[in-house]
Amino acid sequence: MKIAVLVFPGSNCDHDAYHALRHVLGLDAHFVWHKEDRLSGFDAVVVPGGFTYGDYLRTGAMAKLSPVMGAVRRFAEAGGPVIGICNGFQILLEAGILPGAMIANESLKFICDTIYIKSETSTGPFTHEIPSKSVLRIPIAHYQGNYYADRETLALLESNEQVVFRYCDASGNVSTEANPNGSVANIAGICNSGRNVLGMMPHPERCSEEDMGSADGRRLFASMIRWLEEKGR
Amino acid sequence: MKEIAVTTELARQHGLSGEEVDRIGKVLGRDPNFTELGIFSVMWSEHCSYKSSRVHLKKFPTKGPRVLQGPGENAGIVDIGEGLAVAFKMESHNHPSCIEPYLGAATGVGGILRDIFTMGARPIALLDSLRFGRIDHPRTRVLVDGVVSGIAGYGNCIGVPTVGGEVTFDECYDGNILVNVFALGVVRHDRIFRGTASGVGNPILCVGSKTGRDGIHGATMASEELDDQSEEKRPTVQVGDPFTGKLLLEACLELMKTDAIVGIQDMGAAGLTSASFEMASRAGTGFFMDLDRVPQREEKMTPYELMLSESQERMLIVAKKGREREVHKIFEKWDLDFSVIGEVTGDGVGRIRMGGRTVAEIPIVAVTDDAPVYNRPAARPEGQDALQRLDFSALPFPSDLSETWKRIMGCPEMADKRWVYRQYDHMIRTNTLVLPGSDAAVLRVKGTGRGIALSVDCNSRYGFLDPYVGGMLAVCEAARNVACSGAEPIGVTDCLNFGNPEMPEIMWQFRSAIEGMAKACEAFQVPVVSGNVSFYNETKGKGIHPTPTVAMVGLLEDVSTRLVQWFREEGDLILLAGADRNAVELGGSLYLNEIHGKVSGTPPEADPAHEARLCGFLRAAASKRLLSSAHDLAEGGLACALAEASVTRPAGPMGARISNPFPESIRADFAMFSENQGRALLSCPPEKKAALLATAAEFRITMKELGVVGGSAIEIEGIVQVEAQEMKTAWAGGLAGALGFGG
Asked: Low-confidence residues of chain A, pLDDT below 70?
């Protein structure tokens, strides 16, 4: 399985995603420079975290203009699995591949912590092996992770079951106290209507090994592998 | 362009003494022009020349079987086995952070990271040692917020985790905070690069950001006391751009995979001047540079400004002749500026041209080797004896020991630093196995089974009362912290923060602290491979406490043997290592300062030979997997170590009950908070006890079994008892609460 890990100027979780995919899961991961305009031969795409263009403008606002994003859009439209993590999620939002927007955390501080999320759906390449209502322990690290969508968009997301993850506490309660950044409806991750594109603020690549304090993130990638295998059959 | 006339007054404004101006005339054989005066003034500044410290820095042990690069380069390098090494250094950014906290701290991070990757190393960790004024000082809140945001702003963006450090508060830093930043990178032995300009005819390249007028005379500012006019020096604070820093990092590491370059150096303090002269000095060559070719972001910059600018995110590279295109292609890929600005010459002279004429022509040795070296007079301050006098018996006994215990655990110095490190990305690069909050951070080295443990320490109250002992104890504590994580201390870097070296009392503090540190390093057989001196940390004539900050790097050959400081299993036994150290030692203690408002007495006894044995024991016990946890005893003594082992446990506090290891004749409050050094609080499964005691005996470490982990309370039998959850609440809310930032 050949997986693309995109590299934009300022990407900084690219190495971590590559490590998790290649060295932990044994996949054929490759870095793809943002000036490439094709993604042919790849089975899945990771848009990693970081500070593309320093986040000096709105997060992701510059990166969405890179040539590779045209290829990502085509790849996604063809049903290929795409996961945007943290800044990668922000880029997918800016590119309009996923709906909604990010604003600064309620605390107006960068937050790096390990929190809990609850899966809300088990459809789609990254979650179909994770039963709905599972609680995952996973790190976050962001300044602009406060997800926002207007009422209509939100209603649509809910009715289509496009909300994939919500922030919760260790026992799975979705509450204001368990919401680290102020995201509307505790949203930590969403997918597109085709369900093949997932955007999430928490970092599954940071918790793919027991040594890192949690290996829950590996479940998303393991899911992806099974999904690709089944599709190939 | 009209040349500004060089006068004695102008030289004085550049921070040069009359004697130094005469010296310039002598080494140059003529009077300097304005540009040359600028070059001399920054190169001979305390910050660049180490003129007051050099004679004493020689006392540090700098050699050892693991040392691949000692002091004198951008960073020191120590072997960690399997063909890998770590490059590390610590640097101060005190004055810029006092004036403009966000940018001062941010550029401190950027600068130290460039020092690491110029050596060819991929940076994998940052630490910060931060010292602010008293918590209720009107500027403290703003400074804390600015400095922490600045470190986060740069470190998070460039993608290097900030994995630990210290944050303390003391009145002596009211007008002069300390921001010391440490960085460490991993490099293969055969990929180490150095800042050398060798090979006559090789091109000199300026890469990275364009040069502007920011930061001119940053090095000189760092060599002066702060005063009311310091605010006006805001333009001398550099502006950091972590995004460009990230591009430069990736471009340089990509470039270093080729063999197209011979030397590389960061343009840090004193910018193009120090990079060019130092690189030529190391190679014994000269250079020619045409300043018109330096990429500029402002118009009409003068040669003086171009040579002295401290614009950030720039590198000076000496490439192999004919390989310029290869280098250019890499910098083009990363959208960075690139220009061939000169070449290496063989005549030992730095020749700088602009607008078709020579603007400076200085023999390299004149600014480097011929820089003044001072053995400044040193004298023990008159008040030192009075400071060391302390009558314990006169101290009032606290009315409520459990309240006192909670108060100390919740004071800003001891309290949970989560509010700070939650703002730092401490997990990126997925190497951090022990996160902030334990004695040392532990990182794995991917591709090996090895690990690196890191700690930065200094108790400046000890240094104030006795700088020699304070210097020793800073090294001992840092080593103990690293050993408590199961690692062997293998290298030291330091930031020596002191007042005005022209005052004999300050020079005495400085000399004594270095001698103490050197003595301790020798006992541990740990070399000092890099570091930095920061003098003139005073405001309006009031100096800080001597603060020799020590960063210790430790190695775990098997990272799976790492330890944490908190209790892990109910039923584990609790033991004290170093239990024979049981005289009352309260001088300079946190208890004395926090509860009785005194900084006096003599600091605890330092015994580096004992500490080295203790570290050897801890490492042996860890590698045999005999321990569940190990925690160093430091500020707040036994009571605070016990409370910390309980409340810092990430999964929630765990109770413990121990007996009092001190003789019954000793007052309860003294037993709780006495800061005897060379001790560690250990926990182990009962079945491991015999093997643990046998290991301790091999290292001649006295052990005492104190109690058992478990229950809901933390208790020292017959003295005090507090519910663990209650202690956690006091500790967790202490810092953010005192700063008024809320949770």
From this structure: 232-233
Task: Give the active site residue among A34, A120, A168, A203.
Answer: A203
Strand stretches in chain A, DSSP E: 2-7, 28-33, 44-47, 82-85, 101-103, 111-119, 135-142, 146-148, 163-168, 187-191, 197-200
- CA–CA separation, B188 vs B83, rounded Å? 6
Instruction: Report whether B214 contacts B235 (CB < 8 A).
Output: yes
Q: Beta strand pairing status for B261-266 and B203-208?
A: unpaired
How far B204 CA lies from chain A's nearest CA (Å)? 26
Strand arrangement of the beta sheet that strand B203-208 belongs to = B261-266, B314-319, B203-208, B337-345, B286-290, B349-354, B357-363
- Comparing CB atoms, the residue among B246, B247, B422 nearest residue A113 is B422
Is residue B95 part of the annotated active site? The answer reads no
What mean pLDDT is predicted for residues B402-429? 97
A112 and B241: CB-CB below 8 Å? Answer: no
Q: Kindly state whether B428 is in contact with chain A, defined as any CB-CB distance less than 8 angstroms.
A: yes
Distance from CA of B422 to the nearest CA of A (A): 5
Give dist(CA B334, CA B327) in Å, integer.
11
Q: Is B189 a catalytic residue?
A: no
Q: Which residue has the tokens 């820089």?
A: B371
* Residues B529-549: tens digit of each pLDDT: 999 999 999 987 788 999 999
Answer for the pair B111, B91: CB distance below 8 angstroms, yes or no.
Answer: yes
- Check B427 against A50: CB less than 8 A apart: no
Do residue B430 and residue A19 have CB atoms under 8 angstroms apart?
Answer: yes
Q: Which residue of A has its CA nearest to B336?
A: A9
Residues on chain A bordering chain B, Cβ-to-Cβ distance under 8 angstroms: 9-10, 12-13, 15-16, 19-20, 23, 50-51, 53-56, 109-113, 139, 141, 143, 203, 205-206, 209, 211-213
| Chain B closest-CA separation from residue A100 CA (Å) | 24
In order, the DSSP letters of B252-318 are: HHHHHTSS-EEEEEE--TTHHHHHHHHHHHHHT-EEEEEGGGS-BSSSS--HHHHHH---SSEEEEE
B243–A212 C-beta distance less than 8 A: no
Q: Mean per-residue pLDDT for B41-55?
A: 93
CB contact under 8 A, A54 and B241: yes
Residues ≥6 apart with Cβ < 8 Å to B209: B241, B244, B248, B297, B311, B312, B313, B314, B336, B337
Residue B256 sits at φ, ψ, to 5 deg, of -75, -10
- Mutation pick from B427, B432, B559, B568 vs chain A, by most beta carbons of A within 10 Å, is B427
Residue B279: name the closest of B262, B294, B295 by CA: B262
B329 touches chain A (CB under 8 A): no
Closest CA to B345 of B308, B290, B294: B290
**Least CB–CB distance from A19: residue in B244, B427, B446:** B446
For β-strands B680-684 and B573-577, DSSP reports them as antiparallel
- Other C-beta atoms lying within 10 Å of the C-beta of residue B279: 26
The reported pLDDT for the residue numbered B235 is 58
Q: Is B722 helix (H, G, I), strand (E, B) or coil?
A: strand
For the beta carbon of residue B54, count every other beta carbon within 10 angstroms. Answer: 15
Separation CA B603–CA B675 (nearest Å)? 9
Contacts of B421 in chain A (CB under 8 A): 112
Provide the angle, in degrees to the nearest 10, between the axes of the packed helices B271-283 and B34-43: 70
Alpha-carbon distance of B28 to B364, in angstroms, equals 10
Instruction: Name the residue among B40, B118, B64, B95 with its Cα closest to residue B274.
Output: B40
For B49, which DSSP code? H
B444 to chain A, any CB pair closer than 8 A? The answer is: yes
pLDDT band at B743 (very low <50, low <70, confident <90, very high): very low
CA dist., res. A73 & res. A165, Å (int): 23
Closest approach of chain B CAs to the CA of A217, in angstroms? Answer: 13
Helix (H) or strand (E) holding B449: none
